[in-house]
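Consider the following assembly input.
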Amino acid sequence: MIFIPIVGSVPVYLLGRLRERLCEIASLVITLIVFALSLYMYGSLLISKEGATFHFVEGPYSWLSGFGVDYYLGVDGLGASLILISAILSVLVVLGSWDLITEKKPIYYFLILLFEGSIIGVFCSLNLILFYVFWEIVLIPMFFFIGVWGGPRRKYAAMKFLIFTFVGSVIMLLGFILIYLFTTPNTFNIPELIGKIPFWVQLLASAATFAGFGVKLPVVPLHTWLPDAHVEAPAPISVFLAGLLLKMGGYGFIRVNLGLLAEASRQYAWIFIAFGILTMFYGALVAMVQRDLKRMIALTSINHMGFVLLGSFTGISASTAQAAVYGISGAIFQMFNHAAAIGILFMLSGYIHEQAGTRNIDELKGLRIGMPKTTLVLILGSLAGMAAPMYSSFLSEWMVILGAISVNRWYALTVLIPIFTVAYFLWMIKRTVMSPLPEHIHYHDLHNRAMIGLLLYLVPLFLLLIFPSLLLGIVDPLSLWLYQAAGGGR
Amino acid sequence: MNADMVIIDYVAIFTVGSLLVASLSLSKRAAVRQSLAFYASLAVLAASLAFTLLNLSIYLLSDSKPSYTNLFHVDPLSYFFAFTVQIVSFLVILSSRNYMWGDRNLAVYFSLLLFSTLGMVLLSFAADLLMIVVAWELMGIPTYVLAGLRKDNPFSNEAAVKYFLLGAFSSGILLYAISLTYGLTGTTNLIAVLQALQGSATQLDPLTLLTLALFIAGFGLKMSVVPFHMWIPDAYEGAPTTISTFLSAGTKKAGFVVAIRVFVVALPFLSANWTTAFAILALATMTLGNIAALTQRSLTRMLAYSSIAQAGYILIGFAVATEPAKTLALIGVLFHAFNHAIMQSSAFLAVAAVDRTMGRVSLDSFASLWRRMPITSFSLAVSLLALAGIPPLNGFWSKLVLFTAAIQGDMAWLALAGVLNSALSLGYYAWVIKRMYIDEPISSLEQGKIEEPPIISGVLLAATAIIIVVGIYPSLIYDLAKAAVLALG
């Protein structure tokens, strides 16, 4: 499953050298195949209701013998849901790139598939070193995406992105080495490590992984690469960045910190929760004052990812199983929803930039008259972004806040966050949509195919609002299991 | 096969070969002086490489024990390093077909390369301090000439003089350390030194410490350890780039194998002293190398400093080469030495290709290189990423082993310094990649495609393939290194 896109990327590149159109279609076919496979995997997990244990396990096959490095794959509820959303976003991103990417297509689609393969690898690795390998491969296509196809400040943004994330991840690697050396048996395999790591190692490793996952998520003092990278990247790549790359951070926190470093996470949850709340407030408040539409959306991500941190760590430190399930499942649910919601917003900002020539919120005026279809999508997308009760993002934020309140009443403060979010989205809509159209401006509206492509992002959000058990069915057992493994409820 | 036979075979192959190649320079016909010399030296190296591989596989398959003579140890460790340095010479000689072609003294050039290679091979086997000096000189003296091969180029002359002076200096220091050792123990054989020190290990007189310091300084000059690194950037920049490759990827590695023999095998009782020294040197070397590399405008100099920094990573292994982390640390040293030889050769030879076609190697001339020389820029990018330690390339695995050993050996601060340095080094490696793939060309004149030198391109692709294959299947080299370390006892 990882290797379909990675191996497929080479013929796509070669086809692209022949005829550019061919590589677009070929990569769509490959991403669709991956989507079908991930749907099958997800479905079988959902039907068997065993989201808490690892399935489709491959390995462990020894990779570096005597060093605990194995080739070891498998998915549980968390992995399966994130792989599913990765596959969905990859299909949609390939579709969206047909319009927005005009240069160097063969190598672009080559990198897209490489990215998809390695990010799926991240979500299903059961060996910490294998996980790290995929984690780092992700950086390379992303560096080139931002650097080659990006906006005016692309070089700066690409370098900043690379250095920030690399520093974070090498420190994380030290944490993994610590875990390996001071746990019996000496191994990097996640299932064998669960519950065996000594407490002091957990503390040190938590500090180290905080650097790696915190940069990716991002947690607020480590976030400064994000606005630059998201703004300079081309729109489809911003979707990958916000939709999938940030999820690597969230995935890491849940898989490693909650799963392996459970006691430390439970004991010192308040530190992570404090960072989470800081991240949420910071993201919301800074987003409010942005002029650039895309930058505002980028900061929305920071705001939303704070929920993930809050949810997972209130969950692990909760006193009742119910609250724990709300928190952790809410966090995973939030990741899934955010990926889809942010996808539509970023793609749309790409189209708006292309058609209006600007992304400055003050200069975009009268969209209601100028581009009615775009306006429709913009409003629908913004509603997803502000977690209106017509989408599942409402459910996930509600779950996280509910879980948080049942841990500590003061966390009720976070109810303010959705209010801020609604405020800046509405304010943006007021300025761009509800304003009169200046006479000298003529916009081109979206064409139908692009609009359908955009609306597809909303399908999972609708679906999960009506049937939340489609996702929670495989995530809830996992949350409960994580909570109990961490010693909660005893 | 017993140890004497192995050594005699090597000496015979190389000596006959290189004398033959040298005699070709007497010929009046340019074709003989050039082509024949090239093919002959290739044949010599191919033969010795095959010999090494054959012996190594016989050794591993027949499960034999290391064999000793008074002067030599024949064990997997020696084969490992002999193999590594011969690969480097092979790549260098192949690339010289494009890079040095047309030089008047080509036959001499090849012959000197072969002699120096013989020196490195003997150094990998040497187990007696006097033998080490002989092999050390055999390795060093031809390279002084090679660095100054371009007689009419003042930079090349400067490089040669600087390199020669410091090289002679290091040999002197080494000899002094050896005579002190002889004075202390009454022998120059490493095993005998070990036995002699066994009793008197605890009492540390100033003389022993001085000996240690002199050994470190003597080897450090070749291993490019800060503060003995001053000659490196100038020498690498002035010498022909193929020779810089040879120095950085080849002769430096030979320094490491002797250091293992002397410190880890012969002087383990003094480890309390030399591990601390190596830890400090490792920290200084990698930090200084990386920071200096950040500011360079010429790619040769940048690679020279990066090579210094990489030596720092290898020194981490020496710093923890005592129990409990000894095995892992030495595996890391061997593994990283091999990887570094390949990565550094690939990077330097890519620069050689650019130097040959464009005539300059400033960072600016790499702008938008991927349009002009796609193979060269691809290989350079891969080798730079490998040097930075990005998985799944080979450099990642050896660094992982080294850092793990550092934590296991209770020097977690060294591992932390190591990973931060890797991140720092990515700063300039990625900067070069950005130049090649993202930046626009400096002037509109420089956009045409350049014909890439065919053999160097082939060599680059081969080296890139090794980097990627070892990256995906690290056990290939890791197991070999492990066997070498375990046989060391």
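Strands of chain A lie at 55-64, 69-75. Ask yourself how this observation constrains the way the partners meet.
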